[in-house]
Amino acid sequence: MKLYNTLTKQKEEFVPVHEGKVGMYVCGPTVYNYIHIGNARPMIVFDTVRRYFEYKGYDVNYVSNFTDVDDKIIKKANEEGVPASEISERFIAECKKDMEGLNIEPATHNPKATEEIDGMIAMISTLIEKGYAYEKNGTVYFRTRKFKNYGQLSKKNLDDMRAGIRIAVSDEKEDAMDFVLWKPKKEGEPAWVSPWGEGRPGWHIECSEMSKKYIGDTIDIHAGGEDLVFPHHENEIAQSEACNDEKFANYWMHNAFLNIDNRKMSKSLGNFFTVREISEKYDLQVLRFFMLSAHYRSPLNFSAELMEAAKNGLERITTAAENLKFLINNAKMEDMSEDEREKLAGSTVYVENFEKAMDDDFNTADAISAVFEFVKYMNTTTDGASSKEYLQNLFDCLVRLTDVLGII
Ligand code: AMP
Ligand code: ZN
Predict the structure, then answer these.
(1) Residue 18, Cβ neighbours under 10 Å: how many?
(2) φ and ψ of 387, to 5 deg
(3) How many CA atoms within 13 Å lie on the side-chain side of 408?
(4) What secondary structure letter does DSSP report for 385?
(5) Distance from chain centroid for Cα 255
(6) Which of 27, 273, 355, 384 has its Cα between 20 and 30 A from that of 348?
(7) Going residue by residue through the chain (408 aa), what tens digit of pLDDT does each one get?
(8) Residue 60: left if φ>0, alpha if ψ -120 to 50, beta else—which one?
(9) Pocket lining: 33 vs ligand 1, CB cutoff 6 Å
(10) At CB < 8 A and 24+ separation, what contacts does 9-12 make?
C-alpha cells in the first residue's frame, strides 16, 4: 500500500509503527460557524483513508480535534454577548450533524482544545526546561532557531523566511520566526491559570499535545488540508520533536483545495457554501461522492454540473443495488450453478482494480471507476433466473466496496 508523503515528496510503502495498527491524526475545524464544503473535503477524504485501512484489516485509532478556543470564536461570542464556550459547543453540535449526513465514522477520539490545557502546559514547560522556549511578559515563544530541522516539511529555509519578515521595534521575540505557545489573557477572553500567568494556548500546540496523548510520541499519519503545511504542521513538528525527542509523524498527507471558480473556497473570501446549504438541495451522500470523484491531491472545482454528474453516478450504483435486492428476494434457485461460479470468479477483477487504485495513494477516482465496471458486470450477468447465492455474493461485494467509499 503506497501513500504520498509530503515530508519526502514521494509515494512510499506504508509501514505502521505497530503491526496491524494505524494511529492517525487529522486537524479538525475551528468551530465558530457552520462548516463549509471546503472543510468537508479533508473530513471525507481522511475518513475514506481510515475506512480503507479498516477494509485491509488494520485497527485504526483516528483522532481529530475541535479547535474551540480561538480569536474568531471569541469575536463571535462577544458579538452575541455569550461565553465563547456557548459558540463552540453550538457549532461542534452542528458540525457533528453535518458529519453524520456525510457518513463520516465517529473518530476514536474527538478532543477539544479547552479540555486539554493541562497537557499543553506540561509540554510548554518541558520545552522551556529544554531551552526550546522562553517567556516574555506572559507570552511563551518557541525558539525556532534552536530546532535544527525547522522547514523539513514545507521545504522552507529559515534564513529566507526570516529575511522576508519585518520586525516591529516593539517586538519582544528573540527571532522573527519564533512563534507563540502561550499568550496572556486579554480583557473579555477565556483564560486558564499557567506558570506564566493567566492566558490561553497558541493554536499549534494543541495538535502536538493531542496526538501525543491519544496516539503516542510517534504517530503513523498526520493529515489536513494543504494550507496547514506551513506554518501549522511545520510548527507542530518542531514542538513535538523538541519535546519528545522522537520522530513526530511518519507520513504526512495533505488534501488539495476545494475551489470555486478556481479560487480556494474560504470563509475569508466569502465564496463558500456551507454543508448545511448543500444539504437543502442534495442528499449529502452526493457531496461525499462528488469529493471522492477526484484524487485528494488534485484541486477540485465545485460546480452545479459536477454535482449533477455525481448525483447521476450515485444513482447508477444505488439503482443497481436495489435491482439486485429485488432479484435476491424473488430468486427461485438457492445455490450457484457451475456457470455462476465462473462468473463470480470473473468479477474479482473489479475488486482487484478497486484495491489497486486505493493501494496507489488512495486513488478514489479510479476506485469509483472500478465500482462502475463492477455494477455494469452485475447488471449484465444477473436476471430473474439467477440463483440467490450468486446474487447475494455480488451484493455483499458491492457493499464491501461502497462501504470503503462511505456510500450507503
Ligand atoms: P479551518 O477550520 O479553517 O482550520 O479548516 C479545517 C480544515 O479544512 C483544515 O484541514 C483546512 O486545511 C481544510 N480546508 C479549509 N478550506 C478548504 C478548502 N477550500 N478545500 C479543502 N480543504 C479546506
Ligand atoms: Zn492541527
Answers:
(1) 12
(2) -80, 155
(3) 11
(4) T
(5) 8
(6) 384
(7) 999 999 999 999 999 999 999 999 999 999 999 999 999 999 999 999 999 999 999 999 999 999 999 999 999 999 999 999 999 999 999 999 999 999 999 999 999 999 999 999 999 999 999 999 999 999 999 999 999 999 999 999 888 888 877 766 567 899 999 999 999 999 989 999 999 999 999 999 999 999 999 999 999 999 999 999 999 999 999 999 999 999 999 999 999 999 998 899 998 899 999 999 999 999 999 999 999 999 999 999 999 999 999 999 999 999 999 999 999 999 999 999 999 999 999 999 999 999 999 999 999 999 999 999 999 999 999 999 999 999 999 999 999 999 999 998
(8) beta
(9) no
(10) 9/155, 11/360, 11/361, 12/251
CA 143 to chain CA centroid, nearest Å = 29
Give the chain's length.
Answer: 408
For the purposes of burial, counting CB atoms within 10 Å of the CB of 127, is it exposed (0-12), middle (13-18) or buried (19 or more)?
Answer: buried
Q: Which of 6, 36, 39, 301 to mutate to test the pocket of ligand 1 (most atoms within 8 A of CB)?
A: 39
In the numeric block, which cell numbers belong to residue 51? 475506512
Contact 377, 344 (CB under 8 A): no
> What values do phi and psi take at 268, rounded to 5?
-70, -30
Residue 222, SS3? Answer: strand
- Position in ligand 1 atom list of the atom nearest CA 264: 19
